[in-house]
Amino acid sequence: MFTVKSSAEFLADIKAIDPKLKNIRISSIEIERAECKIRYNFICDQAVDEQLQAKILSEVEKITSPIFTLVQISIKKIVSNDELVYNEIYKYLNEKYPSVSIFLKQTDIIVTAVGEVVKYVLRLTKDGGEYVQKNGVINKLNEFLSKRFCSDFAGSTEIKEQEESFSLLSEEVYADELQKIEHRTIKVKDVLVIDDENMGDLALYIEDATSGEVTVAGVITEITERETKNGKPFLIIHLDDTTGKTSGVYFSKKSTYHKIKELVVGDAIIVRGSIGEYNGRRSFTFDKINRCTFPTDFVKKEKYKKTAPREYKNVFPSPASIIKVKSVFDAEEVLPSELTDSVYVVFDLETTGLDFMSNGITEIGAVKIVNGKITEQFTTLVKPDYKITEENVKITGITEEMVKDAPKISTVIPDFMKFIDGAVLVAHNADFDVKFIKRFAGAEEYEIKNKVMDTVELARANLPQLRRHDLATIAEHFGIAFHHHRALSDAYCTAEAFIELMKIKNNC
Fold first, then answer.
1. For residue 28, what are the CA distances in angstroms to 25, 41, 231?
2. Secondary structure E strands in 258-354
């Protein structure tokens, strides 16, 4: 009577034939049902002669279902070594998880054999490490490797420290708006190795390259050679991949200096490097450079963006708390159509600092203007992922204790997106607030496309007689109560000033 055995029992019977087979494994099984044929593909770390192969085939036939009239075996000798395992790991990650492999340098995959177990470590950025853990990548990679080598595998991750980067002068770096990395890639062609034969041909959109270890590609738009104070030569290279522009510094190497010197404006290159911060400025260091051909048929893939949710979930608007009561003796006010024909949301943020890429939001205050009147308010404290310093407390009055139970910005953003949906955004020094809110909206896969108006610009154009155009001065000019620095009170003050400025602008 034929008995179906488990894969473990099946292999145990094969291994029992000869000590040489103690590490034999099944890499795959091929079945051709029409011909009732089955083929077992084995891998082994020892050479298997014809006599031993015949014994294995005999044992395999015993434990194979009789429905197969033809049973075949194939045995390939594969001995795992560090380089082979490294190549298989990189190949697997590159094919299955390009969003992980694109941030890996050659030195970021560490392979060591300990007895019959091969251990490996993936050195990743914080985001990459979290992605690997969340998606069970290590377990899938262990399973993949076990089918290719006669070893057991144990993988782990290690968060690599931010490497010190070289600072470029601000005028030499293209500024761009940084949003969440969404791993959109460009596949370049005809890679010609200069520095790294393992770099591959996949590059992240420059638009998405914001931090950590990245690989980008593009056409050189400018290249300049400089020297450090110690006389070490380096290049400043500007790249454009049509999704964005970036600049990086590359320290020349003796072995490849002559090849790098041949690069000129118009050449396409693929580079691997690290993006960080030096003295408060964004800095990109190019570690490896290869030549390539940028694809002529490249079409930018747009980022997926969520639309505003239908319902509020965490932060709910409420009726405006400051409403001017009209007297029966007041004349009917004529408001400009520009003010009444659109819905406006005037908002203000309190933050942990001025740099929108290295600080968080501690409070959002916003009011909605409909038909020229303030009708609703939206306000909440926010628990930031950044420390609130004593200086912040002095400026805003917001302490760590006040925000300890407040919602995270990730849960506030969807409700704020609903509140501003279809409205024109208004803020005082709008560039500051808009950069912050766009960064955190982008992190939650929202895109703010609202038209933006700045009361500073409106005031400069319509109140040229004022020596200063800060919010306090404008509020004093219009006789508006001003209680700086809390988000909602600032939003109300800005909204009232905005209404008065729009009247002047439209000669009302």
1. 9, 5, 58
2. 268-278, 281-293, 318-319, 344-351
Cα Rg for the chain, rounded, in angstroms? 32
Helix (H), strand (E) at residue 63: none
Decide if 71 contacts 61 (C-beta within 8 A).
Answer: yes
From 236, 241, 211, select the one nearest 226 (Cα to Cα).
Answer: 236
User: Residue 4: pLDDT band by 50, 70, 90 thresholds?
Assistant: low
Q: Give the pLDDT confidence score for residue 490 in this predicted structure.
A: 93
Instruction: Kindly state the average pLDDT of the residues 370-374.
Output: 93
b/e 31-53 (16+ beta carbons within 10 angstroms → b): eeeeeeebebbbbbbbebeeebe
- The Cα 56–Cα 78 span in angstroms is 18
Count Cβ atoms below 10 Å from residue 285 Cβ, excluding itself.
21
Q: What are the DSSP E strand ranges found in 58-108?
A: 70-77
Strand order in the sheet with 109-114: 109-114, 117-124, 152-159
> Mind listing the pLDDT tens digit for each residue in 273-316?
888 766 556 678 999 999 999 999 998 887 767 888 888 999 99
Identify whether the C-beta of residue 221 lies closer than 8 Å to the C-beta of residue 238. yes
Q: Is-catalytic flag, 258?
A: no
Give the pLDDT confidence of 384-443 residue by residue, as tens digits. 988 999 998 988 899 999 999 999 999 999 999 999 999 999 999 999 999 999 999 988
Lookup: tokens for 252: 């020349």
DSSP 467: S
Calculate the dihedral angle through the C-alpha atoms of 253, 258, 260, 261, rounding to the nearest 10 degrees: 120
pLDDT band at 167 (very low <50, low <70, confident <90, very high): very low
**Residue 81 pLDDT > 70:** no
pLDDT reading at 346 higher than 60: yes
Q: What value does the mean pLDDT take over residues 39-54? A: 83
Which two three-digit tokens encode residue 395?
């400026």
The encoded tokens of residue 145 equal 């490797």
Torsion sign over Cα 194, 199, 201, 202: negative
pLDDT at 101 over 80: no
Instruction: Give dist(CA 30, CA 28) in Å, integer.
Output: 7
Q: Annotated catalytic residue: which of 183, 477, 484, 485?
A: 485
Give the position of tokens 């001995």: 79
What distance in Å separates the CA atoms of residue 149 and residue 79, rounded to the nearest whole number? 7
Cα gap 390→394, rounded to integer Å: 6
Residue 198's nearest CA partner among 135, 136, 270 is 270
DSSP assignment of 483-502 equals -TT-HHHHHHHHHHHHHHHH
Q: What is the DSSP string of 298-314?
A: --PPPPP-BPPPSS-SS
> 58: how many CB neighbours lie within 10 A of its CB?
11
